[in-house]
Amino acid sequence: MPVRGLTILVAADDGDRLHAALSFAAAGAARGDRVRLHLHELAVGLLRPPIRAPADADRARTGIPMLAELLEEVLALGVAVSVCQSGLALYEIDLATLDHRIEAQGPVGLLAAAGDDRLMIF
Length: 122
Known about the structure:
- It is a single chain.
- By secondary structure, this protein is an alpha/beta fold.
- It has a single domain, classed as Hypothetical Protein Ychn, Chain: A.
- 39% of the residues lie in helices and 17% in strands.
- The chain contains five helices and five strands.
- Strands 4-3-2-1-5 form a five-stranded parallel beta sheet.
- It starts with 5 loop residues before the first strand and ends with a strand.
- The mean pLDDT is 93.
């Protein structure tokens, strides 16, 4: 029986929600699961420098990875990270300015790639 993967969709301009989504993506990838993470529209703005979440200072103080660190960890673990083309346009972000491991993808492409994967929405 084929193994189902995990597709995580972040649809809000909320750094702490993105941190939670990245945490689940990292956990799945560390388990050996196939994981993809997609930032939809407003969530794309969270990738503008500096990449940070409201609770990052508390995280740093307690040894929990901050948002930018967790994003790098997820990319290093091989999670397929994509961003909404509309979100790029909305925030006037050039894809070339983002990490080269992040790709642009629309809803149709994301759903086609997800197939039978489980879906989590943050």
